[in-house]
Design a protein that fits this description.
The chain is an all-alpha fold. Helices cover 76% and strands 0% of the residues. 0% of the residues are buried.
Length: 180
């Protein structure tokens, strides 16, 4: 039988050796490559993106000195045009134009124009509605209603009904007096 301390030292040495082999194996083959899914049916491609330099890249053809001379001439022409302008006069005219603008007057004119539009719209709608009314039919309806009212208020018929009701009430009164 072995001594327990020798057994513990051997076991510890075996664990260290096994851990060393496992770590060496792990670092040589770290596992599954997760960058691509093996079930993916679309082929993997690299995305190409443009840099800002490529987006704004301008190709100049021909002689560089000649192109630079053209640019210089264009700049000189622009300078000459800008020097020929009377900037003070332009600023003065702009200020005068802005001073002539009266926002209150513009608001009043706009408000008046909107009122006129509304009044015209109301007038047109009223005229349209009045055109749609059938005045002849309305007159006929009024006359028919008046005839119906006159017929229902026939005075002779009403007088006869009143006389009949009066006679019935007299008979009833006479019966009451004879029975008492």
């Amino acid at each position: 039988m072995q001594h327990p301390s020798k057994l513990s030292a051997g076991l510890l040495a075996a664990i260290i050796v096994v851990a060393g082999f496992v770590s060496i194996a792990w670092f040589q083959n770290p596992g599954i490559d997760t960058s691509r899914d093996p079930q993916d049916t679309v082929p993997h491609r690299e995305k190409k993106t443009r840099t800002d330099k490529e987006k704004h890249k301008t190709v100049i053809t021909g002689d560089m000195d000649e192109n630079l001379e053209k640019i210089d001439k264009a700049l000189d022409k622009l300078d000459a045009e800008l020097e020929g302008k009377d900037w003070d006069k332009m600023n003065q005219q702009l200020r005068e134009s802005l001073d002539r603008i009266n926002p209150e007057k513009m608001a009043r004119e706009l408000e008046q124009a909107m009122k006129n539009i509304d009044e015209q719209k109301i007038r047109l709608e009223t005229e349209s509605a009045l055109k749609k009314i059938d005045w002849d039919k309305m007159q006929q309806d009024i006359q028919r209603a008046m005839l119906d009212a006159k017929n229902s208020l026939d005075s002779k018929k009403m007088e006869a009904e009143l006389q009949k009701a009066l006679e019935q009430s007299r008979k009833a009164m006479a019966e009451v007096k004879t029975s008492t």
